[in-house]
Amino acid sequence: MTTWGFFKRxxxxxxxxxxxxxxxxxxxxxxxxxxxxxxxxSTPMWKVLLCLLxxxxxxxxxxxxxxxxxxxxxxxxxxxxxxxxxxIANILYAFVIRHFSKIAxxxxxxxxxxxxxNPNCSFEP
Length: 125
Prior knowledge:
By secondary structure, this protein is an all-alpha fold.
C-alpha cells in the first residue's frame, strides 16, 4: 500500500467520527444553557465559528479559544484528543515506523510495552 493510500484509508475511517462528534457537540453547545459551562452566554459568534472550524480540522485550540471553560483542546468534542493522538501515531507509522527493520521494530515494541506496564514511568507533570 502506498503512503497516500494509507492516509486516505485513515481519513475515511477516522474523520467522519470527528465531524459527527463536533457537529453534535456544537448543537448541544447552542441548545444547552447549563451552569457547568460558564462561558456560554458571553462567547461571541466569531469565536464559536472559529472554534468549530478548528475542531473540524482537528487543530487544537489554546486557552484563548476555550469557549466552555474546561481547558480542553476542542470545546465541541472533548474526546477528540484521542483521535488526534491516533492521527499522530498513523503519521509516525507511515513515515518512520513501517521502515524499521524487524530487530528495530522488536526493540520499539518492547520499549513501548515497558512504558505501558511500568507504573514508575510517567510523562505527566
